[in-house]
Amino acid sequence: MSNGNSTLLMSRVTFGRALRRLRQEVKHFTIADVATTLDCDVSLISRIETGKRVCSQQHFAQLMDLYEVPPDQRDELAELYAAARERRQPWWAAYNEVISAQYERFLGFEAAASTVHEYQVGIVPGLLQTEAYAQAVTGVGFASLGADQIEALVEVRSLRQRHCLHETGSPLECHYVIAQAALDFQVGGKRTHQEQLERLLEISTHPSVDLRVIPYEKGEQAAQISAFMVLQFSDEDVPDVAFGESVAGSLTMDDPRDLRRLHRLFRSLTDAALSPDESRDVIAHTRNRDS
Asked: Residues 103-147: pLDDT tens digits?
């Protein structure tokens, strides 16, 4: 992949999409057709095509024959296949004991993304949080975990910030819209609240960060929509992926219809929000008022 932040997950996703195009657009096979030919479960083919699993060398050879892939294209796919099987350890591998499979998948997508569009109602986006703020929200969100486990998750959030924004030659392009309530909630106490507002004023001037606030006067625009983010990738072979919040936890969305709806929602929220300069004024006013 051309994206310098490419990960093993992205290699698998790209390889899987290439196989799906061959199946659907070239041979017009169903997943069931392929599974029957390879004498395997339908779920295996589905997981290979979505990047959740890499096929065996035997299945790779069988698929190349089944799809009648010409030699030059087969060589290209062989390179993708090799990249998808490479045993690279991402930076978050050291935290496997506290990272769920869902969170690990999210980290893989985030590490490979070029752009994020995120909306938050009551909290500050993760990549903009101070350590103390992250400690407070993580302690509530993962109350069943021990203190050392919570500390590890806070470290992961700090490392995300470093890798995505501060210690990279190609920082993530961040577009954030937050409700004004997120500025007023005193997370972690008064001092932590003040430090977080200072961080927002500082990070909002970062060349890769566009931060906008929906004021209370536009509350009807913000109050009925839960938090979500959409990740986009510079590699055109990798589709957008979205993550939403629910009482059951984080939801992953990759259906094109869902993504179109979320993009429309984000444009609407952006239109309702203040400009970046006006948003900084609101943040500064909140900081000064509560100091």
From this structure: 988 998 999 899 999 999 999 999 999 999 999 999 886 767 788
Mark which of 85, 101, 135 sits at the end of a domain. 85
DSSP string, 238-252: S--EEEEEETTEEEE
CB-based burial of residue 220 (10 Å sphere; 0-12 exposed, 13-18 middle, 19+ buried)? exposed
191 and 147 assigned to the same domain: yes
Structure tokens at 235: 């590699």
Closest CA to 135 of 159, 163, 157: 157
Mean pLDDT of 51-80: 91
Are the C-beta atoms of 238 and 17 separated by less than 8 Å?
yes
CATH code of the domain in which 71 resides: 1.10.260.40
By C-alpha distance, which of 67, 75, 84, 69 is closest to 11? 84
pTM for the model stands at 0.81
Residue 73 CB-density burial (10 A; 0-12 exposed, 13-18 middle, 19+ buried): middle
Number of compact structural domains in the chain: 2
Does 60 share its domain with 138? no
**Angle, CA of 173, 175 and 177, to the nearest 5°:** 165
User: What's the pLDDT tens digit per position in 165-187?
Assistant: 998 889 999 999 999 999 999 99
